[in-house]
Amino acid sequence: MKIASLFKFAAWCFAGLLVVLLVVGGTVFVLSQRKLQKTHVVEARPVPVSAAAQVLAHGRHLATTRGCADCHDANFAGRAVVEDPAVGRLHAPNLTRGQGGLPADYTDADWVRAIRHGVARDGRALVLMPSLDYEGMSDQDLGALISYLKMVPPVDRARGPVSFGPIGRMLLVKGDIKLAAEHIDHGAARPASVTPEISPAYGKYLAASCIGCHGTNFSGGPIAGAPPDWPHATNLTPGPGGAVTQWTEENFIAALRTQKRPDGSSLHPVMPAAFGQMTDLELKALWSYLRTLSPLATHTR
């Protein structure tokens, strides 16, 4: 084959590859945009909101121990959660009433819709809000959390961008990055209240905050939609590869409180240190639930 023919063949191959990439990229963009623009009609049933000191104290405890500051920052004014050109630039919103924060007409129903349902005021799915962790929260607890968040001091901070890069859009289409609003049963009944007690039932209620990383069956493995440098989540079941199989309740509580395993090694910073601020009762209940899990091999996804 002559040199000119080789160049022509290579050019046609390159052109063909470019066309394929453009078609695939365009399809991914359209499908991901369809997910992002889809609207959800949600009835935000009212929850008890109060300015009583006891309610606010409980709400503060919930905001602290359920990881709200991990995305919204310690002052709840928002911060960058993902800054990666390929994945996207995803910034959590300012939850205060300062400039750049929530509007003056933001209602209790808007709070419920966002936290419990993962849906914005305009009906679109919230991108970062892990409402799958919170959708089963009791009305009493959700009301206390909203009561507290409504009272945090105003901070002036404009929200950063919320935009997906090509890899982020692909992960959206594949479902590795989940929009919680698409997976929640919005009409399901929620408990009016729960009784804090050292029991597997209460531990299961608390463990809802763990499923985002450890999975719905707590078998760990790769964290869906996580950056590539994140470690795999720990298998919390007593199955093969279960990291806490030989732990005691004391080991478990100490690990969450100190971020140290029984052998002295440190937990990865991805593991929210805020969980260690749960009460002894909460941590013991959580441990009692984990002991009831069926043994499973670490999930490989």
Q: Can you summarize this structure?
A:
The chain is built from ten helices and three strands; from the N terminus they run H-H-H-E-E-H-H-E-H-H-H-H-H. The chain has helices at 3-37, 53-65, 68-72, 108-117, 139-151, 166-174, 200-206, 211-214, 249-258, 280-290, and strands at residues 80-84, 88-91, 162-164.
Structural write-up:
By secondary structure, the protein is mainly alpha-helical. The protein has helices at 3-37, 53-65, 68-72, 108-117, 139-151, 166-174, 200-206, 211-214, 249-258, 280-290, and strands at residues 80-84, 88-91, 162-164. The chain contains 10 helices and 3 strands. The chain has a 3-stranded antiparallel β-sheet. α2 (53-65) packs across α5 and α7 crosses α10 (280-290). It is globular and about 80 Å long. The mean pLDDT is 90.
Q: Topology as H/E string?
A: HHHEEHHEHHHHH
Mean pLDDT: 90
Strands ordered across the widest β-sheet:
1-2-3
What is the number of beta strands?
Answer: 3
Residue stretches low in confidence (pLDDT < 50, at least 5 long) are none
Q: Indicate the overall shape.
A: globular
Question: Which tags fit this structure?
Answer:
301 residues, mainly alpha, three-stranded antiparallel β-sheet
